[in-house]
Design brief:
Elements: H1 10-22, H2 27-34, H3 38-51, H4 59-93
């Protein structure tokens, strides 16, 4: 009999990690309350504390990153087309 892994939503993970970060209950208390292993709660709490600053990154900088990414994809497309054209032309001489 194969065990299937439990999958938790991001909202659930955030809720549990936030409760753990508050420090009002122990990890064992939270584990019994939410039905999650205490080690998993500790990992989620650590992720929240390490990556929580990403929430407050200015939206303008995210938008700029998306613009740069789309620009790079356009360049890749152009370069691929040029490469195919050059291969086609070089095949005549080789």
């Amino acid at each position: 009999m194969a065990n299937t892994r439990k999958r938790y939503s991001a909202g659930f993970k955030f809720k549990v990690a936030l409760e753990a970060a508050k420090g009002q209950k122990t990890a064992n208390e939270l584990a019994s309350e939410f039905g999650v292993h205490p080690n998993q709660i500790s990992r989620w709490k650590q992720e929240l504390l390490e990556e929580g600053a990403e929430v407050f990154v200015r939206k303008g900088s995210r938008k700029r990153e998306e613009e740069i990414q789309s620009e790079l994809y356009e360049q890749i497309g152009r370069l691929k087309m040029e490469l195919e054209w050059l291969k086609k032309k070089a095949a005549k001489y080789g």
